[in-house]
Amino acid sequence: MPLPAAQHETTPALDLAWVRSQFPSLAQTVKGHPATFLDGPGGTQVPQRVIDAISDYLKHNNANTGGAYATSRHTDAMIAAARAAMADFLGCDADEVVFGPNMTTLTYAMSRSIGRELSPGDEIVLTHLDHDANISPWQDLEERGAVIRMVDIHEDDCTLDMEDMALKITNRTRVVAAGYASNAVGTINDVKEIVRLAHEHGAMSYIDAVHYAPHGPIDVRALDCDFLACSTYKFFGPHMGVLYGKREHLQRLRPYKVRANTNAIPNCWEWGTLNHELIAGITACVDYLADLGQHVDSSVSNRRQAMLTAFEAIHRHERAFMEKLMSGVLALPGVKLYGISDPKRFDQRCPTIALRIKGHTPLELATRLGERGFFTWDGNYYALNLTQRLDVEKDGGFLRIGLAHYNTAEEVERLLAALDEIVGSGG
Ligand SMILES: Cc1ncc(COP(=O)(O)O)c(C=O)c1O
Questions:
Q1: Structure confidence at residue 424 as a pLDDT band (50, 70, 90)
Q2: Is 121 exposed, middle or buried (CB count within 10 Å of its CB: 0-12, 13-18, 19+)?
Q3: Is the pTM of this model over 0.85?
Q4: In this structure, are strands 352-357 and 29-30 parallel, antiparallel, or unpaired?
Q5: Does the beta carbon of 215 sit less than 6 angstroms from any atom of ligand 1?
């Protein structure tokens, strides 16, 4: 499902000075160079209010849940508020929001429970574009007799082969697990169509929205997906994972759980004591996005509407910088870009760019950029099937440059100049 096209031309631009003033870490330097955070796909920076919410919780309300005294009651209320915040973020109800330490843990837990229902020969459809956190937990169900079917990609632009997907999903399929967007090459998948294909054959859909979440609005009801997982540390929040599950599935499926824990959803899906201080940070990160939307358009009527406005502005901002970054990168000598490079198709990708440059390993490029204060990444970022499929795993994967809404045009220009110096005539 592509990002909303340019129908929101009228949305006012981001107030970048305000945005950057919210994130104290952006002011850092590395050996005299301004720190340039192009590592958002590995984890974004956090606004001051997230830091404050975490420490305030520890200072004033640090307690376990369910106790008959003030700090415990405050903790219960704080967790309920965070669930409501994530419900606004995802477009669902609060009792459909499950918290966990990260997306991988939540996906392992849910896939174990779904696995309890599978019979030998039942099929699970996965994709070569996905992060391993949406592959291995399902692949491990082979030990229960599940059959894994992998959907291929179009190698030229790293998009999913939807014809292959339509062939791979059959009446034996029980689960279709696919990403919303690739954390390696940035492709945004047609999630609505994937969910439709799954449902047409009576299968459930499990969507990994970890990479997409900082870039575009999520509406689980409009997607009609059965599950959708994301991680708040990728969208300006703390290191936590969040799983949306349709209420009917959360109620019907059997979680692995300790007996003393409640049988009520969503808590029955949460293992042990949660990381309360970080959950306090989740509400703050959602409120940051809503505030950003308010800042863009003060007439927004509620928190979800404010976030939708924020994402329109984020999208416009990131898209403009992606065009600048892409044209600069493609002009570098010996560059090979993986993914969509045609600006006319930029609504089908996030501003996450994977490339290789002849004569330089991705590690060497990331290291030399790092010395100049540019934080990029090298390797496979756990998109292992993809680096193997594209035959780059054996020699270092890709260099990944990931833009977030707090990046500036000047940062993109300096990055391109640094890359040119490293690989061009100055190299
Ligand atoms: C697309 C994608 N899916 C899943 C994950 C795993 O998320 P977590 O670290 O919360 O387990 C990542 C982490 O980089 C990711 O980028």
A1: confident
A2: exposed
A3: yes
A4: unpaired
A5: no
